[in-house]
Amino acid sequence: MQLHIYKTPDEVSKALADWITETIETTLKKQDRFTFVVTGGNSPKQLYELLAGAPYKDRIDWSKLHIFWGDERAVPYNDSRNNAKMTVDHLISKVPIPREQVHIMDTSLAPAESAKAYEAILHRYFGEEGASFDLVLNGMGDDGHTLSLFPHTPVIHEKKAWVTSFYLDAQQMYRITLTAPVVNRARKVVFLTFGANKSNALFEVLKGARNVDQYPSQIIQPLDGDLHWFVDEAAASRVQ
């Protein structure tokens, strides 16, 4: 695990944009596609806007990117809470990625059917063994959740399904999410986290006793890949 600490959220986003771009460039020298899992929420908006502008937009070969989502709220695409819509608005609509290489979780389906359909897409890309995604971008909530792996939910311990859905009582909505088994086969996983409200969770996830039910982000540990955390000083205050 590598921890990258920067002074402000702006600096974190800039450093991560540099790192992601370099990762894509290096990987595409060795293979002809790059599979990238993106995340929703507020934290990555600035990152996405950076990637959609110079110089990053011109350095990345977008025609070779294949985009996936880590999780989704079971709300219509045009709902402001929809993760895919946010990413499309701030990044994907601004760069030349072929539409057939952008894999949105289909919330027009029932949640269980959406999860099943998304898992079928993943099985067209990846086998039962070996690496999965080239890069997974995750956020972390101040409760220590990541993806839709929320504290004390059974999905944390999913062992077989790559994608699943469940009803989250606390939010009174269904969530669709990738699970630890497929994410932990990624070549690289990076967390983007900033703000003082994340400092306790970050400390517990990185330095605390293992308690994945309380702090689900702990369960994301790539088997053969690299794990990076890009954080600001406020989030890292207890870790330092």
Explain this structure.
- By secondary structure, this protein is of the alpha/beta class.
- It has a single domain (2-232), classed as Rossmann fold.
- It has seven helices and nine strands.
- Helix 1 packs across helix 2 (45-51).
- The protein is globular.
- The two termini are 15 Å apart.
- The mean pLDDT is 97.
Keywords for this entry:
alpha/beta; globular; 20% strand; three-stranded antiparallel beta sheet; 240 residues; Rossmann fold; six-stranded parallel beta sheet
SSE topology sketch:
Blueprint: E1 2-6, H1 9-28, E2 34-38, H2 45-51, H3 56-59, E3 65-69, E4 71-73, H4 83-90, H5 111-125, E5 135-139, E6 163-168, E7 173-178, H6 180-183, E8 188-193, H7 199-207, E9 226-232
Parallel strand pairs: 1-9, 2-3, 2-5, 5-8, 8-9
Antiparallel strand pairs: 4-7, 6-7
Helix pairs in contact: 1-2
